[in-house]
Design a protein that fits this description.
The complex is a heterodimer of chains A (233) and B (576).
Chain A lengths: L1 E8 L9 E8 L6 H11 L19 E4 L2 E4 L11 E5 L6 E3 L2 E2 L2 H9 L20 H6 L17 H5 L6 H11 L7 H9 L12 H5 L6 H14 L3
Parallel strand pairs in A: 1-5
Antiparallel strand pairs in A: 1-2, 3-4, 3-5, 6-7
Chain B lengths: L1 E9 L3 H10 L5 E5 L15 E2 L10 H11 L6 H21 L13 E9 L4 E7 L5 H15 L3 E4 L1 E8 L5 E8 L4 E12 L20 H8 L4 E2 L4 E8 L9 H4 L3 E3 L7 H4 L9 H13 L11 E4 L7 H5 L1 H11 L8 E10 L3 E2 L5 E3 L6 E7 L4 E2 L11 H23 L11 H12 L6 H15 L6 H18 L13 H25 L17 H4 L1 E8 L2 E8 L13
Parallel strand pairs in B: 1-2, 1-9, 2-6, 9-17, 15-18
Antiparallel strand pairs in B: 3-5, 4-5, 7-8, 8-9, 10-19, 11-14, 12-13, 13-14, 16-17, 19-20
Helix pairs in contact in B: 1-4, 1-11, 2-3, 3-11, 5-15, 13-14, 13-15, 14-15
Chain lengths: 233, 576
């Protein structure tokens, strides 16, 4: 089928402001949007720039705004989005070129929540720390996060408040706060309780809608809020 | 720009990050990666990491070692396989201690599942050895190790692409040259030790499970600097890729009870490997899938695929233990694996060959394992050789952790006493010339056409089945593509995030990989593991129980050989 793709382009070496360019390509309905972008890049216009790697929704490279919604280009089929596609970079971070944005603030938010297991005890020698399947289940959903930034850049609070750590960082904090093996919850909850933490969230659900991994992000954020209010991990 | 460190790690997948965990607290260390570390392809590994921890049934490291050796069709170096199987146990516990959320048994231990070629008591039947975290074990390993990197304050250079390896006239490695993709600047990293952890090159083939970034950069750069490549002819096709797309569906699906069926609904693997059935090693299963298709028992309008049937698994098994592949099948095929069988075909998956190393990750140059001081390799870029002619499922993750750690530890010791060898006047001249060649050429052909031809030809003629005739043809094609590559022109002439340039450079790397694969495959006139020569259908231990070493010379690729380390298990016929 013929697909018309309108892409917001910006080349900082030439342009003073972004502009749309439209390409018409022939694709199978079952192709991914990423296939169409590759088709344009490889055979029509090699200057079109976007990040990509795994091409099946697990590496998190190709988050972009597709017809107004944050999606991974490799996890969205042409037949599910139609023959007229508009693609823009994810919002809230500086555009470096075309669909490539500056991810540094995003990773800074991630690093801010101490995203690593904190446990001061000597681990048992020659065996694992034990954890019940039920305790493991508590972090199952949030451990699926691939840090694509679809959630964070769909959040209106992120767009207007650069200090907000954002939903992805809260998801990553959640993955440790509720890990029965972790002893760093107090430190992390203090970060969550800060003015740039969970209380910026206005429960808009954009993050949950945007997540390509179907993580129930709003629920995870609410769980952190309740823990802060009622002091129960 | 110039940087100086004690140690450099190139690549931020499992092996690179595991090496970083050994080095970052000991000496000044930088991790240089083409991708943000969490984008690395380790994150796509699904089913599990094998270790004989025996949590759900009796198991022993020696059984794991035996399976690894037999799985590799006895080309596996047994000293290395012993290290792998022994150290896998501690490696898994170390990952757990770092925080990896493994699935658990009811009593809180790490849960384990079956996987292809992993057996109890030297082949009696399948054993539950694969420790797993749903079907995103690689994702959890990658994240756990990246988290350690953040905790340890590792210096990351993200989106820097290595273009050259620096080796002195005295044969000592003292750094690399990288392109900062963000702004197009060249960076010289001067160091006492370099660990290559750049991964594989599945993108050489048309249908692959590999990420677009898996273009063999480290393999090719080493080869260009005179380092041999070992056993490149052994390339694994994973039996269950999504039809036409190649997206991986884990062997864990069969470990949980999934069955392969042909057009008659027959469980055909029973005929070929009666003991292990669907859980035979990957080389065999891929071959038998093609055999079914060739003999007219494929499925679909073109009778060109096979079904992976998961419909009989207990309710909830897919959602709980295989949620990601369930999602992939629903997303990309529009079918529900709970009620419908999945069309699959073998997909290019893993390079057994690569940069030769010893069991400490030191890159070696010849049959007597002479090390190149200062240079290490670990993970898929390397050939220890722990996978021989065919890797067992889960052993890639074991390899990353065990040999990433060993390379890191050895390098940490090495830099304590090593001198920093001086750089030449213009260490980046080759890299600059290569890049300006591509940027300056205004007329020429597109890299995409050359790449597409290479991928199609490699898939057809250097894939699961090979013949001398087809290999000669593809060798001719590659030499033609190499000539055409010298005339590639790119559209993007800019400095900032020039992915057009990156892709053209990657194509150059892939051509090196493809040429060495084919050269090895032409040379090896026998069938062993993943290398199936229809014109030499038998394994030939008398002549070919040896590794190939491919050297780049001015007269083309030159082949030399290296003996296989055999310590405990004499080569036998391989039945399952």
């Amino acid at each position: 089928m013929q697909v018309k793709i309108k892409i917001l382009r910006f080349n900082p070496e030439q342009d003073t402001k972004p502009h749309f360019e439209t390409y018409t390509v022939e694709q199978e309905p079952t192709d991914r949007v990423l296939d169409a972008l590759n088709n344009i890049k490889w055979y029509t216009d090699g200057t079109l720039t976007f990040r990509r790697s795994c091409a099946h929704g697990v590496c998190g490279s190709d988050a972009m705004r597709i017809n107004g919604r944050n999606r991974l280009a490799c996890k969205l089929l042409i037949q599910d989005v139609g023959a007229n596609i508009t693609i823009e970079p994810i919002m809230g971070f500086r555009v470096l070129k075309d669909l490539v944005v500056d991810m540094e603030p995003f990773f800074a938010g991630y690093r801010a929540v101490k995203p690593f297991l904190i446990n001061h005890d000597q681990p048992p020698a020659g065996r694992e720390r034990h954890q019940t399947p039920e305790d493991r289940d508590r972090i199952d959903d949030t451990s699926k996060c691939i840090m694509c930034a679809c959630c964070t850049t769909a959040c209106p609070i992120t767009w207007t408040n650069a200090d907000f750590v954002g939903p992805a960082a809260i998801v990553q904090a959640h993955r440790f706060i509720y890990d029965s093996r972790d002893q760093g919850s107090d430190e992390r909850l203090a970060i969550m309780n800060d003015k740039s933490g969970v209380w910026r969230c206005r429960t808009i659900f954009n993050c949950t809608d945007a997540c390509p991994r179907d993580i129930k992000i709003t629920r995870a954020i609410e769980q952190v809020k309740r823990t802060l209010l009622y002091d129960r991990v | 720009m110039y940087h100086r460190y004690d140690a450099l790690i190139i690549g931020a997948g499992g092996a690179g990050l595991m090496a970083a965990a050994q080095l970052s607290n000991v000496c000044s260390t930088a991790v240089i990666s083409k991708l943000y570390p969490p984008r690395s392809h380790t994150g796509a590994a699904q089913g599990g990491i094998g270790a004989a921890i025996g949590n759900v049934e009796e198991d022993h490291w020696l059984w794991h070692m035996f399976d690894t050796v037999k799985g590799g069709d006895y080309l596996t170096d047994q000293d290395a396989a012993e290290v792998l199987a022994r150290e896998a146990i501690d490696a898994v516990f170390e990952l757990e201690h770092m925080g990896l959320p493994f699935n658990r048994t009811p009593d809180g231990k790490i849960d384990q599942r079956r996987f292809g070629g992993h057996t109890r008591n030297f082949g009696e039947g399948p054993v539950r050895r694969a420790c797993f975290s749903a079907d995103r074990t690689g994702h959890m390993i990658l994240y756990t190790l990246y988290q350690q990197g953040i905790k340890n304050d590792v210096e990351f250079y993200d989106e820097y692409m290595m273009l050259d390896l620096l080796i002195t006239d005295d044969g000592v490695c003292n750094g690399i040259v990288a392109l900062n993709v963000a702004d197009g600047e060249f960076h010289v990293f001067h160091a006492k030790a370099v660990i290559l952890a750049t991964g594989g090159f599945g993108r050489v083939f048309k249908i692959t499970s590999n990420a677009m970034a898996a273009t063999g950069d480290g393999v090719a750069v080493a080869f260009r600097r005179g380092i041999p490549l070992e056993d490149m002819e052994f390339y694994q096709f994973h039996p269950t890729g999504i039809n036409k797309l190649g997206i991986l569906l884990t062997e864990g699906a069969r470990g949980e009870g999934g069955i392969l069926r042909n057009v008659n609904g027959e469980r055909f693997m029973e005929r070929y490997t009666p003991t292990l059935k669907d859980l035979a090693p990957r080389d065999m299963v891929s071959r038998f899938i093609w055999q079914e298709i060739r003999e007219g028992r494929g499925i679909g309008p073109d009778k060109d695929y096979i079904h992976l049937d998961l419909t009989h698994l207990p309710p909830g098994a897919l959602e709980e233990k295989l949620p990601d592949i369930t999602d992939f099948v629903r997303t990309y095929m529009g079918i529900d694996p709970v009620t419908q069988p999945i069309p699959i075909q073998p997909t290019a998956h893993y390079a057994m060959g690569g940069v030769p190393t010893d069991i400490d990750g030191r890159v070696t140059l010849d049959a007597s394992n002479t090390a190149l001081p200062g240079l290490y390799a670990a993970g898929e870029v390397a050939c220890v050789s722990v996978h021989g002619a065919n890797r067992l499922g889960t052993n890639s993750l074991v390899d990353l952790i065990v040999f990433g750690r060993r390379a890191g530890k050895h390098a940490a010791e090495f830099v304590k006493t090593a001198n920093l060898a001086a750089l030449p006047a213009e260490p980046d001249f080759r890299a600059r010339a290569e890049v300006s060649n591509l940027l300056d050429r205004t007329k020429g052909e597109k890299a995409a056409d050359i790449r597409a031809t290479m991928q199609a030809e490699m898939m057809d003629k250097a894939g699961v089945f090979r013949t001398g005739e087809a290999l000669s043809e593809v060798r001719g094609t590659l030499s033609n593509l190499r000539a055409r590559y010298a005339n590639v022109a790119i559209d993007d002439k800019g400095k900032i995030h020039n992915m057009d340039l990156v892709e053209a450079l990657e194509l150059g790397f892939m051509l090196d990989c493809a040429e060495t694969i084919v050269e090895g495959a032409v040379t090896r006139t026998e069938s062993r593991g993943a290398h199936m020569r229809e014109d030499y259908a038998e394994r030939d231990d008398e002549n070919w129980l040896k590794h190939t070493l491919a050297y780049k010379t001015s007269g083309g690729i030159q082949m030399k050989y290296k003996p296989v380390s055999i310590t405990r298990f004499e080569p036998k016929e391989r039945n399952y």
